[in-house]
Specification:
The chain is mostly helical and about 130 residues long. The protein has five helices and no strands. The longest helix is centred in the C-terminal third of the chain and has 28 residues. The two termini are about 15 Å apart.
């Protein structure tokens, strides 16, 4: 796999969609009025895509993998916050399930990508 831009990564594109979904979900209602919580869930969702991008730009597999693990953690944080949003009646069951599905899907993709990178023998430009 040879990609020149993080924007070409399907994983980053999925993470970007998650961030857009969370932002839209938090634009109105009670969740919008809870500034701290709203900003926290937006930040964790955005962090997934941001860490994928930052790791990619480091141009070394070891650092990329490290940032993918951070992105995976942010994905779990967003999923946890989704349950909190549901528990506080900020979102309904349908939105909760959609968020949980999206975050689990991305988390699985991140894990699979980490395995791929570890087993690929690629080192990245930094270590060639």
């Amino acid at each position: 796999m040879t990609l020149s831009n993080f924007e070409d990564l399907p994983l980053w594109q999925k993470a970007r969609e998650l961030s857009k979904f969370v932002f839209k979900l938090t634009e109105e209602g009670q969740i919008f009025k809870d500034f701290r919580f709203r900003d926290q869930i937006r930040a964790s969702a955005g962090s997934v895509a941001d860490n994928i991008a930052e790791g990619f730009e480091r141009e070394g597999n070891k650092e990329f993998i490290q940032f993918l693990f951070i992105a995976k953690g942010s994905c779990a944080e967003t999923r946890s916050q989704s349950y909190r949003a549901f528990d506080n009646q900020y979102i309904d069951q349908e939105k909760l399930e959609e968020l949980v599905d999206k975050t689990r899907d991305i988390s699985t993709d991140i894990s699979n990508f980490i395995k791929y990178l570890k087993n690929s023998g690629m080192k990245g430009k930094k270590y060639v």
